[in-house]
């Protein structure tokens, strides 16, 4: 029987070969996507493990036990920026030969040396020193290995110091071990009590579980439907052949074995193609920044259980599916041979859809679980039930649409199509099921992203000032003792700061491309009303003061006049109230349209005020921005609280997750619609192949080819449009419940782009149906009417 099954699979003529190839392609596509999802998950876990060492020196972090007699290592982690990219800076000072060594380097750097990642080392060589290298004291001693880098593009630097230079810094601590794992909860403190977090932290695996689970459903479910549709190619011919075997004495087990061999051959070929597709695409796939940065290709790996699961599970599932597909042959081979009309679908088919909506509705009423794992267990089954419910309910909805069309049919083509749909609505819906599901996925994805964007908000007022560099000054108490700032600069008096500020401002003004330098002076006056900035920016973190008044400082109108993108002064004013920290006050309207309130402070007295921040307006060139950033970071009298950043960089950081979600949504929509198009083409072609004899009989009895074309078009368009309406409505309902539960925000209707995508998807689908019309002429010739 196995030999016969192999012979039928590969030697059954052109029709059998075409079916085998299409099924192998469908399985290969599904296996490729499955392997991609598994490898990306493994890659995220591997990438996250390389952030662990940056948490060294913080409490509640697993670091292991140091051997007895280990010399301490002074350690401080901070962040920097270059061209919109984060630069991770680690300052160390070894106290002896046994001090711990960070991963990726052979030894601790000596004072005056540093190790840089390959990407940063390349930038240091290719960038003028006053734009980057002048920030880091010493010389390059070597590069940091991959073991310490999450990504090939990571910008990391480890700088060596003397113990005296590092021991008095407030965020430095002595460690005897390097952290081996990231903390379970962020926000740890170092032994000196300061909040300490690395500038980059990765994406916790639990944090992406829900996203990847939903994306996996959105991508794999259409592929499974494509596979199921491909298996239906020449289904009627195969059923008749197997029924004939049963009638001449073949046992059900023998028929099942033959069918399983045929399906397993195609599935095995598809599995091999899927592995080949994955390995071909692994390198370009590694360049996709799923977590904000590309992967090393080796990180996108598969474990042995992953390989065995796919290599054994997929052919096994194909064999089981083949066995289930022959249920009618096993029950009544004579009925199959005589083409008995199947029982019409019942209303119970809508039950899974209702249960899925009720499942999500339960969490709308009672709230979501607190943990990410609980949210996955709560929301993913509901989404899966809804998608399965749409597929299960599709034939019943198709039958309802067919009955309505039959009641209103006035032409032979419409009446024939309606009768044929009512006769076998399952087969009619099968061809369009992929597109129906793709419309549901598109609706949920676009509506969810629109709601996410509305919740997050966007600092639209920064658009005209994106190239403005803001440096928030550290606000420690004034003193004259010891180096305490993160760059080692000493605390000085107000007078000392004032004397040191003038050279800094002059140096900044001399940089080519700097248009204006504004010192925002400290002020004890009233705060600015939020309405002046156009109201709050909804969804922004509380640290960005989304509500309430904005703390104000003082700005000279002579300085502000040279930066028109930052607003203007009232006529006759010498100074105005201005946001104390401009990068912490995202405006809802353009800054250039704001007239700041006048301040009752003479211009000559501004120089005696303390400085809260320095704002540098540039022409947007990288050279001007980076030279100004370097000058600010190297200033000793006014060290930053953090790295100076442009308003464009701050905005990009705040909206970065929205950009990542948009990329993911685009991938899901394009992939699901493309797979749905393949499913539709395969389904329509399979339906035509199975009905070529009755269509040829209609041609012989006088039916015109145009009539048959209308029959084919209506048989595909009616279930498509009937179920698409329900699918889109369910998509909006599911998106509304998901937004309420997970995003905790009411649903926001998508823009015009969604409706254009939906209309284009339906139009392309109708075009796919029309493209099969030439095939209809070829398969309905007189020779197809002969008994076989």
Describe what you observe in this structure.
- By secondary structure, the chain is of the alpha+beta class.
- The chain folds into four domains: 1-51 and 206-215 and 231-340, no CATH class; 60-175, no CATH class; 345-457 and 656-788, no CATH class; 460-653, no CATH class.
- The protein is 53% helix and 9% strand.
- It contains 22 helices and twelve strands.
- The protein has helices spanning 2-10, 13-49, 118-126, 163-167, 205-231, 235-247, 252-286, 304-325, 327-331, 333-337, 351-366, 372-408, 412-423, 425-456, 494-510, 557-560, 622-633, 647-690, 692-700, 705-743, 752-771, 773-779, and strands spanning 73-82, 85-94, 113-116, 139-143, 155-160, 173-175, 468-472, 514-521, 552-556, 575-579, 611-618, 645-646.
- The strands form three sheets. The protein has a six-stranded mixed β-sheet.
- Strand 1 and strand 2 form a beta hairpin.
- Helix 1 packs across helix 7.
- The protein is elongated, with a radius of gyration of 34 Å.
Q: pLDDT below 50 for ≥5 consecutive residues: which ranges?
A: 475-496, 541-545
The amount of beta strand, in percent, is 5-15%
Number of domains: 4
Mean of all residue-level pLDDT scores? 78
Find the count of extended strands (DSSP E, 2+ residues): 12
Which key terms come to mind for this protein?
788 residues, alpha+beta, six-stranded mixed β-sheet, four-stranded antiparallel β-sheet, 53% helix, 9% strand
């Amino acid at each position: 029987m196995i030999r016969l099954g192999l012979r039928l699979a590969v030697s059954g003529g052109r029709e059998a070969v075409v079916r085998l190839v299409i099924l192998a392609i469908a399985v290969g596509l599904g296996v490729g996507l499955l392997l991609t999802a598994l490898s990306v998950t493994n890659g995220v876990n591997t990438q996250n493990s390389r952030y662990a060492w940056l948490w060294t020196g913080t409490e509640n972090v697993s670091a292991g036990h140091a051997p007895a007699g280990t010399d301490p290592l002074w350690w401080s982690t901070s962040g920097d920026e270059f061209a919109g990219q984060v630069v991770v800076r680690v300052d160390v000072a070894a106290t002896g030969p046994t001090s711990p060594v960070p991963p990726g380097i052979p030894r601790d750097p000596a004072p005056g040396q540093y190790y840089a990642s390959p990407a940063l080392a390349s930038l240091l060589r290719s960038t003028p020193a006053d734009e980057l290298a002048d920030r880091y004291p010493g010389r390059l001693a070597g590069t940091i290995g991959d073991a310490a880098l999450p990504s090939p593009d990571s910008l990391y630097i480890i700088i060596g110091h003397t113990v005296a230079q590092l021991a008095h810094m407030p965020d430095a601590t002595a460690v005897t071990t390097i952290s081996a794992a990231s903390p379970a909860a962020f926000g740890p403190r170092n032994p000196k009590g300061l909040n300490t977090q690395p500038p980059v932290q990765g994406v916790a695996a639990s944090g992406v579980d829900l996203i990847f689970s939903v994306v996996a459903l959105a991508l794999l479910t259409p592929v499974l439907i494509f596979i199921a549709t491909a298996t239906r190619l020449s289904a009627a011919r195969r059923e008749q052949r197997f029924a004939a075997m049963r009638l001449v004495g073949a046992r059900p087990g023998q028929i099942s074995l033959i069918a399983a061999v045929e399906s397993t051959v195609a599935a095995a070929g598809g599995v091999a193609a899927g592995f080949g597709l994955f390995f071909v695409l692994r390198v370009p796939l590694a360049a996709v920044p799923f977590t904000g940065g590309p992967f090393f290709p080796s990180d996108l790996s598969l474990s042995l259980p992953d390989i065995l699961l796919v290599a054994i599970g997929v052919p096994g599932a194909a064999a089981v599916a083949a066995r289930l597909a022959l249920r009618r042959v096993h029950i009544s081979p004579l009925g199959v041979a005589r083409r008995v009309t199947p029982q019409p679908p019942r209303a119970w088919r809508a039950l899974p859809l209702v249960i899925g909506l009720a499942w999500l509705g339960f969490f709308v009423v009672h709230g979501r679980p607190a943990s990410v794992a609980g949210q996955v267990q709560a929301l993913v089954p509901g989404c899966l039930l809804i998608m399965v419910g749409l597929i299960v309910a599709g034939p019943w909805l198709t039958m309802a649409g067919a009955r309505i069309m039959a009641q209103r049919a006035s032409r032979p083509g419409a009446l024939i199509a309606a009768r044929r749909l009512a006769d076998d609505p399952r087969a009619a819906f099968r061809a369009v099921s992929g597109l129906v599901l793709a419309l549901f996925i598109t609706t949920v994805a676009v509506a969810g992203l629109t709601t996410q964007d509305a919740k997050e908000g966007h600092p639209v007022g920064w658009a005209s000032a994106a190239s403005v560099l803001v440096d928030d000054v550290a606000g420690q108490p004034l003193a004259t003792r010891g180096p305490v700032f993160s760059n080692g600069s000493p605390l000085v008096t107000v007078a000392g700061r004032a004397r040191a500020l003038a050279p800094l401002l002059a140096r900044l003004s001399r940089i080519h491309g700097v248009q204006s330098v504004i010192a925002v002076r400290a002020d004890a006056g009233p705060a600015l009303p939020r309405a002046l900035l156009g109201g709050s920016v909804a969804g922004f973190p509380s640290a960005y003061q989304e509500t309430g008044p904005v703390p104000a400082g003082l700005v000279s109108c002579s300085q502000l006049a040279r930066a028109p993108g930052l607003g203007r002064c009232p006529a006759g004013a010498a100074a105005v109230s201005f946001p104390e920290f401009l990068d912490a006050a995202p405006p809802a309207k353009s800054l250039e349209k704001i007239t700041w309130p006048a301040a009752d402070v003479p211009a000559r007295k501004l120089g005696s005020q303390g400085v809260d921040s320095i704002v540098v307006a540039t022409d947007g060139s990288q050279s001007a921005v980076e030279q100004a950033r370097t000058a600010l970071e190297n200033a000793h009298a006014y060290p930053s609280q953090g790295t100076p950043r442009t308003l464009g960089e701050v905005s990009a950081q705040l909206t970065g997750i929205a950009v990542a979600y948009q990329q993911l949504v685009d991938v899901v929509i394009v992939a699901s619609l493309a797979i749905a198009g393949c499913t539709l083409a395969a389904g329509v072609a399979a339906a035509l192949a199975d009905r070529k004899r009755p269509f040829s009989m209609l041609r012989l009895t006088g039916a015109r080819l145009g009539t048959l074309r209308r029959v084919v078009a209506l048989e595909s368009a009616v279930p498509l449009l009937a179920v698409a309406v329900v699918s889109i409505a369910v998509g909006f309902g599911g998106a509304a419940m998901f937004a309420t539960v997970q995003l905790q925000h009411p649903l926001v209707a998508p823009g015009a782009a969604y409706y254009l995508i939906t209309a284009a998807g339906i139009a392309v689908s109708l075009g796919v149906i029309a493209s099969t019309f030439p095939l209809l002429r070829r398969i309905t010739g007189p020779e197809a009417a002969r008994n076989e």
